[in-house]
Amino acid sequence: MLKNYIKIAWRNIWNNKLFSFINVISLAIGFSASFVIGLMVYYDFTFDKFHKDGDRIYRATTQFISPEGTDHFNGVNALLADALKQDVSGLENVSAFYTYRPLKVEVESRDLVFKKPNHVIFTDSDYFKVIDYNWLAGNKATSLLEPNEVVLTQQRAESYFPNTPVENLIGKILMYNDSIPAKITGVVANFEERSDFVFQEFISLPTALQSDLKSMVTNTIWDSYNSDAQVLFKTLPGVAGNTIQEQLDNLSKSRADKDDLADGEWSRFYAQPLEELHFDTRYGTFDYSVPQASKKVLLNLGIVALFLLLLGSINFINLTTAQATQRAREIGIRKTLGSSKKQLIFQFLGETFLLTLLSALVSVVLAFWLLRVFAGFIPSGLNFGLFANPWIITAMLVLLVVVTLLSGMYPAFVLSGFKPVSVLKNRLSSQTSATGFRKGLTVFQFVVAQVFIIGTLLVGKQIDYLMHKDIGVNTANIAYVKLPWNDAAITKKKLLKNKLATIPELSTISLGGAPPASMYINSNLVEFSKDGETIEVLQEQRFGDATYFDLYGLELLAGRKPINDTIKEYVINETMLHKLGFTAPEEAVGQQLLMGSKSYPIVGVMRDFNEKPLNSDIQPVVFVGDIYRDWFSQFNMLHFKIEPKTQDLAGTLEKVEDIWKSVYPDSDFEIQFMDETVANFYRSQQRTQKLLNWATGLAILISALGLLALVIYTTERRIKEIGIRKVLGASLMELQVLLCKDFLKLIAIAFVIAAPIAYWRMHIWLEDFAYKTEMSWWVFALSGIGMVVLALAIMSFKTLRTAMRNPVKSLRTE
Amino acid sequence: MLLQLNHIYKWVKQGGKRVFLLNDISLDVEEGEFISIMGPSGSGKSTLLNVIGMLDEFQEGEYIFDGEPVHSLKEKQRAKLYKEYIGFVFQAYHLIDELTVYENIETPLLYKNIKSSERKALVADMLDRFNIVGKKDLFPAQLSGGQQQLVGIARALIAKPKLILADEPTGNLNSKQGEEIMELFKELNTEGVTIIQATHSESNAAYGNRIIHLLDGSKQLQPQN
Q1: Which end of chain A, N or C, is less packed with Cβ atoms under 10 Å?
Q2: Is residue B4 assigned to a domain?
Q3: Which domain holds residue A652?
């Protein structure tokens, strides 16, 4: 029986090559999107699921609670670990660790230097009691107790000591930053499964006192939080998370300032369960170099996949029911031969399954390709090998069955419901209800495609707007290099500046901090007294020398710039001006800003510029010189303009690098361009745009294929009518209108439904931006017209040929 | 008795009036009979065959098949009944285009859940008997009309039905092919299969041992003119 069904199914698929092709391609697109997105979901939901006692492991994070809302912070203070051990009951182990970025590590025995090793932490031996590792050499009981000890992962050990048995590594010395020696006391295996605990080198905590982290590790101020300071702990068995959190709350409150607490302001330590670590973007993971997984992104991707699958299923339903009359005879015969309705339903579902299976096979190839296209969205650890995972395979099979039922159920019921007598006598009714249903599905398809089109256009328009809006800062031909932070001598920086001035292609060279518009944050709180009232303002600081203004085209509205690089004089922006309660720039000049007990003058007012991406409004910004030079120079970048006429850009940059090497022979030269910096603000939006472009393209493709098939089918059925009309004198144009009219009506209905949906969805998306492009009517009009033109083009492919056919032929063949 | 029709009425509404397709038809059929139903186009021959074949319903009357009251059976039981006992032969052959000769003949056995080995034997016998072994892998479109009808009859016989309903079985065939088919029916009848055929042709009707004349859905006692 089964063999018979498969045979018939296969022959049907084979005989209707065009329709089968359209069905397979439409479904395969939906499948491949689903597979890839399913892989991503599986990948991201299987992080850190393998740890021993994983449900008892927590990470401490910080919440800054105030009446205005809660800010979330991934680090803690240096005192928390000890406080937990003393004041919180129910904990089995507490471990503090500090993320560390050494500039280099030297493998003494091999005389090799590795620059900037990543994933290095200072930690205590309790770390290995909280997070269980498999020890390949050494042991967790005796490791990391003394200063100058280090434990490596197998992977790191292999890169430092290739082809050396791990036992032989014990006792070998690593030298960090030329000054901190560490003896290897253990090697642990890397996790075989996915984990956010990415660390590769564990240096004993006391060693941190020899490093530049000393001040952080020994900091005894409770309210000093640092993102590098981390605490992990493990509860005793049977201790609920909320009892720990209660104790943490009490601890946090007992250390809070009483007045602040009364005002509802306090810093709360939050026990973040291990299972929240991977997705909670408020606190991040330990690895900043890769974007964190986001449930929202996964959900949006899932919705895209769902729509693509639905569109494919709709094509299938439409084409199968449209072709029903061709299958009707077979159904009638089978019924007279004794087939029950149930058997027929199974036959058609089987046929659908075969087609679905075929699509799935095609989609595996497509998925392989999609994984490349969407590399920007996909974590690098996700690869094609996951397809062999039994969970994934099971999920794929379930999806196959679901799609089979979704696409096959309705056609199966329609087809199996035919009455054999009517079918065999060619008295098949014209199936008006099914036609209405098909029209509904077609409208749905075009609604989806139309929403995608409008969305794509508006996202494109917004990104174009973001990229080209005047942010009040010069970006063309400006480049900057980061100066080595461990070589803070200002004389060297000035030397570099002076040497660069000899390159004729460079003009307006400036020493300063971050560029005016950048992601760097350097803000502090100032007070301002006016009319007996004190206003607190959080001001973002931009540091620069006298030429910084000219270079970036910043504009003074009143007053002057600071007289020299180190004097504490402030130039405030207009937003700050208004925040302080002034309207005219001149009013602010000469006023004093209060920091602690000291006050500093405002000497000038500058025009507002967008110091952050256009997602946010302009905040209070002040321009100052290198006011903290005595403590730590803030002039950590060198900015310059390259003459626009410069022919040989690469040559010029080479000259810059040569001079850099002569001043800082040991440091890496990294140049960044201002226009790229600004463009990079919108990288995530550009990724969204890319994804949306693809989704739109695929949605259009599926819908267009479906439309094409329906047009072919309906037009074929009207050949006789067209022949008669032609004989009666209808023109080509009139016939064209006749054939396309019905479909255009559906597209019009779809547009009416799609436009408000798209408007609403895009309105939500644009709310993320302080600066929004207009949702112009012409975008909607354009996408509507585009759809009509596309549909006409598809339809004309078939209708024109039909309309031009010689009527004598079509009438004779009847 | 194989089947019994008692006062069967079947009508459709047209402009508020009843148009009778079958008008008070009563008919007893004994096992082993060969009945020819004659009448002009639209006289209700096919309708009567469809009613007997349980493919079509009627509004009034009783229909008893092999002791079972068909008129009060559920769809499922009815399907079981005709699957078991009735084979159909059509004027337009109605073979499944996508299946080969072999597969077409095999299909009714599939619906009766007969085992594969047994199916093979049965189909092989049938091919042999009708002398179409050489054609078993051809598709219907590759056969002549007479050959297609042979396959149609083979398919109708494969499930060993008690009753064969043939609706104008020779209507699409030339006279020589038609005669061969009628000879075959005669032969089957002598082997014990009950046959009811609808036909236009006097000569074909003569193969039967009883002739029923229909006009406008009513049974005529005597042939017209």
Answers
A1: C
A2: no
A3: 485-666
pLDDT band at residue A814, thresholds of 50, 70 and 90? Answer: very low
User: For residue B122, is it within any domain?
Assistant: yes
Number of domains in chain A: 4
Q: Is A381 domain-assigned?
A: yes
Q: Does A2 touch chain B (CB under 8 A)?
A: no
A338/B112 touch (CB, cutoff 8 Å), yes or no:
yes
Report whether A255 contacts A88 (CB < 8 A).
no
- In this structure, the answer to whether residues A520 and A593 fall within a common structural domain is yes
- Asked if A426 is an interface residue toward chain B (Cβ–Cβ < 8 A), one would say no
Q: What is d(CA A233, CA A272) in angstroms, rounded to the nearest whole number?
A: 10
Is residue A137 in a domain? yes
Tell me how far apart the alpha carbons of residues A189 and A204 are, in angstroms, rounded to a whole number.
18
pLDDT of residue A221: 85
- Helices marked H in chain B: 45-52, 75-85, 101-111, 116-129, 145-158, 175-190, 202-205
Same-domain status, A38 and A60:
no
Checking if the pLDDT of A712 tops 50, the result is yes
Tokens of B25: 């038809």
Smallest CA-to-CA distance from B188 within B149, B153, B147 is with B153
CB count, 10 Å around CB of A41?
A: 18
At residue A277, φ and ψ (nearest 5 deg) are -55, -45
How far, in Å, CA of A712 to CA of A723, rounded?
A: 16
Residue A673 lies in a domain: no
Q: Which value, to the nearest 10 degrees, does the dihedral of the CA atoms of residues A329, A330, A336, A339 take?
A: -140
Question: What is the mean pLDDT of the segment spanning A378-387?
Answer: 75
The domain tally of chain B equals 1
- Helix (H) / strand (E) element for A335: namely helix A324-336
**H-run or E-run covering A437:** helix A432-468
Element (H, E) at A364: helix A341-373
Q: Look up tokens 């969205």; give the residue.
A: A377
* Structural domain containing residue B94: 32-60+72-220
Q: Distance (Å, rounded) from C-alpha A342 to C-alpha B115? A: 20
Q: Is B18 domain-assigned? A: no
CB spacing of B55 vs A330 below 8 angstroms: no
The CA distance from A162 to A151, in Å, is 16
For residue B95, the chain A residue with the least C-alpha distance is A333
pLDDT in tens, B132-158: 999 999 999 999 888 998 999 999 989
Task: Give the residue carrying structure tokens 């329906």.
Answer: A710
Of A222, A250, A277, the residue at which a domain comes to its end is: A277
| Domain shared by A348 and A408, yes or no | yes
- Both A716 and A743 in one domain: the answer is yes
In sequence order, which residues have a C-beta less than 8 Å from that of residue A387 and are 6 or more positions away? Answer: A35, A39, A364, A367, A393
Q: How confident is the model at residue B224 (pLDDT cuts 50, 70, 90)?
A: very low
A322: Cα separation from own chain's centroid: 42
B177: domain CATH number is: 3.40.50.300
pTM over 0.90: no
Do residues A648 and A720 both lie within one domain?
no
Q: What is the pLDDT of residues B104-113, one digit of tens each?
A: 999 888 888 8
What's the confidence (pLDDT) of residue B75? Answer: 79
Q: Is residue A91 domain-shared with residue A230, that is, in the same domain?
A: yes
Whole-number Å distance between alpha carbons of A442 and A705: 11
Answer whether B82 sits within 8 Å of A329, measured CB to CB: no
Q: Where is the domain boundary, A228, A250, A277?
A: A277
Q: Show the tokens assigned to B172.
A: 């699409």
Residue showing tokens 């023109």: A731
Q: Is residue B16 part of a domain?
A: no
SS3 string, A109-144, reads HHCEEEECCCCEEEECCCHHHHCCCCEEECCCCCCC
What pLDDT sits at residue A811?
67
CA of B55, closest CA in chain A: separation in Å?
A: 6
Determine contact: B176 vs chain A, CB below 8 A: no
Q: Within 13 Å and on the Cβ side, how many CA atoms surround A617?
A: 6
- Residue A38 forms part of a structural domain: yes
